[in-house]
Amino acid sequence: GKPVCECNTCYAGPHCSVLLPGCIADADSGDPMFLEPFWLKHAASSTIMVPGWHRMNYEFNDGSLLSKQLESQIRTLHAVVGNAVTDGRYIVIGGGATQLLHAAVHSLSDANNRFSPARVVASTPYYPVYREQTEFFNSKDYKFEGDTSLYSNKSVSQGKFIELVTSPNNPDGKLKKAVLQGPSVKTIHDLAYYWPHYTPVPTPADEDLMIFTLSKLTGHGGSRFGWTIVKDEAVYQRILTYMSLITYGVPRETQLRVLKLLKVAIEEQGKEMFNFGEPTPAFAWLKCEREEDKDCNAVLHSMNITGRHGSLFGAESRYVRLSLVKSEDDFDWLLKRMKMLVSQEN
Ligand code: PMP
Predict the structure, then answer these.
(1) What is the pLDDT of residues 116-131, one digit of tens each?
(2) Which domains does the chain have, with CATH numbers?
């Protein structure tokens, strides 16, 4: 039978239909729970069983850390969706895009660079982890240097750059292209949201290094699974070395589960999961225009709406990111709260 779900925090009663009046609309987290109904519907076909004796070895029979079936399933997925070129490209899997982002920055920086560390840059507003991660690891090989707009193409000819490009962008949903160009610029394309449920997908992406994640594709953030598609063999080898020294691969249980989830996701060419024709950005990027509303998050907070502060994304405090990917109840409650806010302002 269907599992019994707990009521969302803003609802009560036997059918979870009673709205709790003072409840906070929490639009902070980017957990894509909007996909839960899809997985409830496909509960039987997406279930895996792992007996105690199964898949105990460190490695697969060929000595690799990546299941051959899973690798080919990932290639099939991109071919079906048409969002990335994988022919002749290498694939490395990791513990979510989070781990792969750092693996990529590490692998594109030059450990033998005698001069200066590579400058890691992104265009404002950018996903905060880029800065947080680079600063946290505090490497001598690379350093976070902020917004791409600080560097004219002239300065790009001096020193090495690693540009992080997020398309569609988190937080503002824009389709982005690399800003910096030149022989000393390497790019990392974070394509976490380049799927038909978030954006139109006009052409398959064909970049040097692309990162995708299961969390935004199927909603399984907690499985901690992502993959990188790389053109250059030397970069691929560096990422493999990184992965093998940091964790020695992704759990084989996870790989088994992901294989199953991807099979179900692309049934009928993914029509049901992607709900074709209705791409909606994962986030709303809101600006408070009124002169006195300098801290937009505080304005929302006074109306019981929790968003994520614009300053975290390198932007002004007049901006707030609101998550639209949580459950339908969360979304409805956010809309109600926003309507109350607008009617009060008027
Ligand atoms: N990149 C972007 C742009 C994201 O929004 C997120 C998740 N919020 C990640 C990477 C991290 O994804 P994962 O859950 O796979 O670590």
Answers:
(1) 899 999 999 999 999 9
(2) 11-30+282-345 (3.90.1150.10), 68-270 (3.40.640.10)
Amino acid (1-letter code) at residue 68: K
**And the tokens for 65?**
């850390």
Per-residue pLDDT tens over the stretch 75-125 = 999 999 999 999 999 999 999 999 999 999 999 997 666 668 999 999 999
Distances (CA, A) of 327 to 25, 42, 169, 331: 12, 17, 21, 6
Ligand 1 centroid, distance to 192 Cα (angstroms): 6
**Residue nearest to ligand 1 atom 5, measured at CA:** 170
- Rounded to the nearest angstrom, the distance between the alpha carbon of 98 and the centre of ligand 1 is 6
Mean pLDDT along residues 235-241? 97
Burial class (CB in 10 A: 0-12, 13-18, 19+), 277: exposed
- Residue 158 structure tokens: 């001096």
- Say which amino acid occupies 180: L
Where are any strands of DSSP class E within the chain?
Answer: 11-12, 18-19, 25-26, 90-94, 118-122, 142-147, 161-166, 185-190, 209-213, 226-230, 283-287, 305-306, 308-309, 319-323
CA of 129 to the centre of ligand 1 (A): 8
Cβ contacts of 346 within 8 Å, gap of 6 or more: none
User: Any bridge partners for residue 228, and if so which?
Assistant: 92, 211
Cβ atoms within 10 Å of 145's Cβ, excluding its own: 19
**Assessment of whether the complete model's pTM goes beyond 0.90:** yes
Ligand 1 pocket, Cβ-based, cut-off 6 angstroms: 30, 96-98, 127, 166, 170, 190, 192, 213, 215, 221, 226
User: 212 in helix, strand or coil?
Assistant: strand
**Strand bridging mode 161-166 / 185-190:** parallel
> What tokens were used for 226?
């992502």
Alpha carbons 237 and 342: distance in angstroms, whole number: 53
Under a CB-based contact definition with an 8 Å cutoff, are residues 141 and 105 in contact?
no
What ipTM was estimated for this complex?
Answer: 0.99
Q: Which atom of ligand 1 is found nearest the CA of 282?
A: 5
